[in-house]
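Appendix B, example 12.
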Amino acid sequence: MAEKTQQFKTEVQHLLDLMIHSLYSNKDIFLREIVANATDAIDKARFEAVTKPELACDWKIRITADKDRKTLTISDNGIGMTEDEVVDNIGTIAKSGTKAFLKALEESKDASASAPELIGQFGVGFYSAFMVADEVTLITRKAGSDAPAVRWESDGKESYRISSARKDTPGTDVIIKLKEDAQQYLEQWKVADIIKKYSDYIAYPIEFPVKKVNDDKTETVEDKVLNSQKAIWLKSPDEITEAEHKAFFSHLTHQISSPMKSIQFTAEGTTEFRALLYIPEKSEFNVFMPEFQKKGLQLYVRRVFITDECKELVPDYLRFLKGVVDSSDLPLNVSREILQENPLISKIQKNVVRKVLAELKKMQENEPAKYQEFFREFGRVFKEGIQTDYANQDKIRELAMYESLNTAPGLLLSLKEYLTAMPPEQKEIYYITGESRKGAESSPALEFFRAKGWDVLFMTDPIDEWIMQGATEFEGKKFKSVTQGEIELDDAEKETSKKKIDEAAKSHKNLVEFLQKELDDTVKEVRFSPRLTESACCLVSDPNAMSAHMERLYRAMNQPLPSAKRIMELNPDHSLIGAMQKLYDQDAANPKLKGYAQLLLDQSLLAEGSPINDPLIFTKRVADLMTEALK
């Protein structure tokens, strides 16, 4: 065959320039692409060998480095190409040999034929070699054909040359003459590192010749296999041992602990992929520092590693998941940015979320102790989904767990369990937000509920406050904060309580007016309430107003706060109210009354965990009271 030189078409030149300089941000990708193409070629040859046994051989990929010539060669013993196929698949950059092969299979009358696993589109991935190459030479010979071997050469600029070549065995050699700034790819360690990262689970051995010095000082060359070829996620779940899970989990996370749970499944239909997911035993230190955390599962396409930061594979509230998704449908040869915008990624995410939520539900029902462990470790993150994943909001809310007034410290309760234990006369789901169980548990606002024996959920994660802003009800029962609005009483209690409060309001009318005037800058209203049974007073908010806990969160984030006054509720049965009334009746102008009014406010703020205006003045007033009491 005489050598022929052909020009790239104008649009192909433009696309080639884009491929070399823009599409791939990491130059190491070129080796992933070439190896993937070699794997594709072997897959095709293996498929042909089903009906043509003479094609069968010891399938492998071989990478050799020649430091003198500055060339890196990737060889395979796969299907190879004829001259026409070389022109068609490589000369036309956007043409896909794989795509055409699959189309031929679909049109085949042999219904028993099964397509091999094919990776990517050969033309596009092949040209990634020019990121590191001054020139690329391809020598190929078609398996099972009498056609001569073909040589293809190009510097990736304006044209390529095709001529005949000598090659004794079928397959393809890709010879890359490396640029001066790409000489590191001639080193065995560099090649091994790339193969380990991107192609470790390719089904065929990837060999690299390594020199070995013998005891007699002579040198021999041995082929070192660079890839493990063991994709654990392709095994049946019952074939994977606990030791294998632990080893693979350690490989993914660099942790020596075992995973809390493994979730393995295969999705078929509109999109096909395999997934092996792990819930760790412990959360990572940076789980609440997104800027320092890699997000997403590891993504593979036909065993070829693509990225470990495909953020779109899982929603943010499942960022604690570790594992692998291996797709059969995603195109391999696109940049990571384009890949994440692929609509198939969204379909994969929906499948992953559906499966994970279903498995968590099973754990909650069948392994409650383990689920308690899971939620104590990851619940704070997981509950974010109630706000961010509207489609699965109800499922996530059912999986949410909380401590409560009537449960032992550390024991978590689901909303369904709360409803089951709720007495018939209780009409709503009560909760209180706070920074900790201890802080919430000491709130005076719980006294009424503690006396009634009703349960109150402790919502002590920062996300809870935001979640409850949009929460209305669960299974027909409304959510109600114990620190907002008025207490709901039954008919009998209403009558008794109303009588007591009316009497207190009448007998302490002038004291209440005095307190209202003294605390007017901070307090919207001073009133008596049935909420308190032990404490003298507490602060509550209007039903739709910002809670005290939310105010503290805003302050912690240095966010401006809207001006909103609180309501001070008084206990009509507390002796302190009577004592203040007596002092007021004796001398309404007594300066101590103003100090006592501020003490009431400060103790209300401290009881709910809020800061007081002037700690120094507060301590002085308390000291004065103690001194007077001890006289």
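The domain at 4-225 is CATH 3.30.565.10 (Heat Shock Protein 90). The chain has four domains: 4-225, 232-369, 400-481, 491-544+556-630.
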